[in-house]
Amino acid sequence: MELDALKEIWKGAGEKKEQLPGNTEILNMLNKSSKSPVAKMMRNVLAEAIIIIVSFGAVAIFYFTAFKGRFSSIAWVYVVIAALFVFYYYRKWKLLNEMQCVACQVKSNLKRQVRTLEKYIRFYLLAGTAMVPLVFIFLGVLFYYKFPAGSLGFILPPLQNTATSIPLQNAGPSMLKASFIWVVCLFLVTIFVYRGSRWFINRLYGQHILKLKQLIDQMEEE
Asked: What is the separation of C-alpha 180 from the centre of its chain, rounded to a whole number of angstroms?
């Protein structure tokens, strides 16, 4: 088995005074192979970065050019979010790339880097989940003030009903009802996004991190 082979290589490397050849063999199996956990995670990071750049860039271009630029603020929000994502992916890619350092002490570095990678993944999950309600709130407030006459009354009640000239104070119950619906919808959407993101992130990174941790634990036992 691959794990048994890795254990034998690691054990043999520890008995030699020259550590570099043993480290090189281990890292080749851990990181250079197309089926290794690190290689798979690096491909996933690259794929995610490309998807974010293409999709968010397309949405930003649309809002920059459509509606005569009335919603350029939405475009800038997508640009900023995409930039933050790309910066995060760069840091994670850099960390994964460092795991292939043949001049480092393999076991100690892997343990430290896996812990750092787990922190990145937790931040990714929490930040990605929190971004959903924040974007919804921003869009709701933007639409509310962009359409004060009630053109989007199905999203929020208008400041004043132009057809019946109902003053703002009489719109209190409908405002409260709309706010309640928004809060419930945001809560449900956030829960759904959190659960979906946790499953998705586990498929992309969690299972591969677990394999690395299991390998390190078994090496510790040796």
From this structure: 29
